[in-house]
Amino acid sequence: MQLDEAIKGRRSAKKFSSKKPDWRDVIECIDAARYAPRAGGHFTLKFIFVSDREKINKIAEAAQQEFISQAHYVVVAFSTPKITINSFGKRGEIYVRQQAGAAIQNFLLKAEEKKLSACWVGHLVDEQIKREFRIPDAALIEAVIPVGYEFEKTKPSKKTSIDGILYFDRFGKKRMRG
Ligand SMILES: Cc1cc2nc3c(=O)[nH]c(=O)nc-3n(C[C@H](O)[C@H](O)[C@H](O)COP(=O)(O)O)c2cc1C
Fold first, then answer.
1. Spans of the chain, pLDDT less than 50
2. 13 CA to centre of ligand 1 in angstroms
């Protein structure tokens, strides 16, 4: 699959079929996340691969999003920020969140390449997830990502037009020249 096809074809799945993905494909998505840029060379994102049905239901509860429980696998992604904050101080806190986003997007693009469907879920009660998976208090929950095959292809979401986000040379300047 071409990169452009993966970028434009990726969408958030909200309904999964009963077909079970090969768990190794999901591990490949996690592996792809490792290649994202990271401040000071410190990769601060960690993953818990969840296949236990009861635990998946607990994640759906913590997120109050029922569709998550349809997935055979859910990946919990969390940051351990200490090393980056030690290197960069306050700014390091921002870097940790930014690099988590870059890595999660790598994950999602790899999933698209493998014809899997996934959804970045960020609306959840962090404490419930930490308790369930024994994640240290100082960690930052970045996302839970249900992975599976989509029940039916969701329509692509409406994209922002390039005209609405692009400026030239300074904020507000909408033309390349003149
Ligand atoms: C930080 C973040 C948090 C998100 N949290 C949720 C969520 O809790 N539940 C959900 O269904 N989708 C969530 N999404 C997915 C968005 O709803 C989705 O990306 C958006 O509607 C655009 O659709 P698309 O991904 O198909 O292009 C989240 C996405 C991001 C980037």
1. none
2. 9
